[in-house]
Amino acid sequence: MAALESGLIADPSRIMSEVLKLLKEEVPLPLVSGWLCLRPDEADEAYSTASKLADKALKDSLKEYGDSCEKVKETRLEVAIVGSGPAGLAAASELVKRGYSVHILEKSSKLGGMLRSGIPIFRLSRDLVDAEIERLRSLGVDIRTNTCVGKDTSIPKLFEEGNRAIFIASGCGVPSKLRVDGESLEGLVYAVEFLEHLNSGSNVEVGNSVVVIGGGNVGIDAARAAIRLKPRTVRLLCPESKEEMPSDLTDIAMAEEEGVQIQPSCMPMKISGKDGRVSTIEFVKTKPNQYDRNGRFLLVPIEGSEFTVEADTVIVAIGQQADLSFLPTEIRVNRRNIIETDPFSLETSMKGVFAGGDAVLGPASVFEAIHAGWKAAISIDQYLKQTSTR
Q: Between 350 and which of 163, 253, 290, 330 could a Cys-Cys bridge form, CB atoms 3.0 to 4.6 Å apart?
């Protein structure tokens, strides 16, 4: 980037083209992976010039990226993928490369899952997501939107239609609840829904005071997205100490530089409202570094440490859960409401059905989901080669 910024590289588009060529050979979703690793951000002035040059170079190379894709000779064996998030797209990319006829089934009208709806636009350009999807189309991947497995079709029916294997990559799209009084008040929104509204271009009003509850990556993303709406204050409160916050350290630093006020080691007790809308939240401070014998984080309130925070909007970001109601009973789901799989092959308890990404890991990173999709594709390839020769 320093070379780009100083003008030492005369043709950044050529460099980006070479980078893409290398990434395509090794990474299932090279555009998305590469850009999230670069972490360009318009709020970072020192990075601004280099970021814009790299962005232009990358966009200039998108057409070449799509046109250079060569379709592999198909094996005629069909594989269905449930969900078009990072895990599903990564699996499709690897499977079509290995010659399989791939069908992606997506319940919404738009593809990309959390890549499109859950990551703020300032962190990931939708042009890159669209380019990845168009590349898969050009390689022959069959994509069906507005198709809900469990309603429009089912796992057994997908096998009946001729699919020899199925990969479940349905993600975790159901927000976890706070379970405190006042959670139903107007002005309280869950982070996944908040980001989805913003990313769809909807007009979102947050008032003067925004409070984000939760210290993970989604909470930080929501806080950084909220501050771009220019409220007077954005405060993020979480039960972990600052050192224990599960979000990325770089993102925490960026949030603070942008004006997000982070208050660690506290938890919400009650939400109060006025005329049916959120007005205040009562918090209590918690003891840091509290864990049980299994290493699980414990919420230990400090008696007499209660305090109140005013809020026009409350954004809840304490995690998401998977909706697995569409699964047949043959597929085992554990107490944490995630799919049980073989840790090496990612095969479920139902023969020929594999699963990965957030539906197996719980809410995780984009890179973990991409890796799971790639790993599942390799396992499906091995499985089909074994079963097709019998």
A: 330
Query: Which helix (H) or strand (E) segment is 140 a member of?
Result: none
Q: Which three-class secondary structure state does DSSP give residue 143?
A: strand
User: How many other C-beta atoms can be found within 10 angstroms of the C-beta atom of residue 8?
Assistant: 8
320-321/277-285 β-pairing: unpaired
Dig out the tokens for 305 from the structure: 């440490």
146-174 residue pLDDT tens: 999 999 999 999 999 999 999 999 999 89
What residues form DSSP beta bridges with 283? 268, 307
Cβ atoms of 284 and 239 within 8 Å: the answer is no
Q: Which two tokens mark 369?
A: 């989901």
- The single residue listed with the structure tokens 């008696």 is 303
Name the percent of the chain in helix, strand, coil, to the closest 5.
35, 20, 45
Helix (H, G, I), strand (E, B) or coil at 132: helix
Q: Which two tokens stand for residue 15?
A: 């460099």
Identify the residue with better confidence: 222 or 296. Answer: 222
CATH-assigned architecture of domain 176-320: 3-Layer(bba) Sandwich (3.50)
Residues forming beta bridges with residue 314, ordered by sequence position: 188, 211
In CATH terms, 72-173+323-388 corresponds, of 3.50.50.60, 3.90.170.10, 3.30.160.20, 3.40.50.1220, to: 3.50.50.60
Residue whose C-alpha is closest to residue 44's, from 112, 109, 123: 123
CB 31 within 8 A of CB 128: yes
